[in-house]
Design brief:
- There is one protein chain.
- This protein has nine helices and eight strands.
- It has 283 residues and is an alpha/beta fold.
- Strand 1, helix 1 and strand 2 form a beta-alpha-beta unit.
- Helix 5 crosses helix 6.
- The longest helix has 28 residues.
- The structure holds NADP nicotinamide-adenine-dinucleotide phosphate.
- NADP nicotinamide-adenine-dinucleotide phosphate binds next to helix 1 and helix 2.
Amino acid sequence: MQKNPKQVSVLGLGRMGSALAAAFTRAGYDVTVWNRTPGKAAGFAVLADPAEARGVVVTCLSTCDIQRPVLERLPAGTTLVNLTSGTPAEARATAEWASQHGITYVDGVIMAVPQAIGTPSARLLFAGAETAFAEHRELLEVLGTTTFLGADVGLPAAYDLALLGIMWTTMAGYLHALALVGGEGVAPERFTPVATGWLDAVGANLPRLGEAVASGDYRTEVSSVDINARGLAHLVEASRGLDARVPTAVRELFEQAVANGQGKHGVASVVEVIRQSQGVPQR
Ligand code: NAP
């Protein structure tokens, strides 16, 4: 492949950073790398110090707090693309630090495993300096399907954590389900195809829930909080002998919604319990 003269430095060569550096290299970019433990950088042009980074700097370390001393080595004038995971507050603090140090800041998150990097199934979300993002978009698109969320650098981390929250609660629900049906002698391979079909149906309901949350109109002809609270009580009851913390937590949310007078409303109204509102808007 013809060499792309554009330079990119990847700081942090863990599982994810190595995948990023490899994808840039495959795409023909001029890649240099830095890692705390130099041995992991075999096969790449290695920087002795982050201060020597060339071109766009992409960071991918474990956490934002351990990353800061590394960032402090970067010279003013650097364009930094921060792909280290963290919270919205951490991203905003890093952006603030960057602006005080003459560093152009783009924040990003990776919604993928390292093995997917370099394929369209890897999804990356970015925000921050729009001109810098536009300038380096082609480079970043090498990593996967990219979306720019706007100037607010807190948004990629907010989306990341919100989406991971969906993933973790779904996975925990699935594992609880396997334990429950396993107690009835049903093996995972028998139950899983039913579960994946069910998840498609659940996913198809999300836009309806989202519309209700957006409008605050929780009236329903479909399924009330009351009926779901009863179903959750059955699930917890049937989970005796298991660690039932997952369904118990959900049951408690629904019971609180009932206690708040939301029993006749739709399931979307449970968001008002999560928001710690006092009930739902009157209609
Ligand atoms: P990892 O394999 O554990 O690598 C961690 C990296 O951070 C290594 O380069 C490590 O350097 C470096 N590091 C740790 N402590 C350091 C310190 N005190 N000073 C300097 N460098 C330090 O983790 P990873 O899976 O690559 O994850 C990196 C980031 O990508 C995380 O923020 C993670 O949330 C995010 N991410 C990962 C995945 C995934 O599936 N792996 C998916 C999405 C997002 P050493 O080699 O010297 O230890």
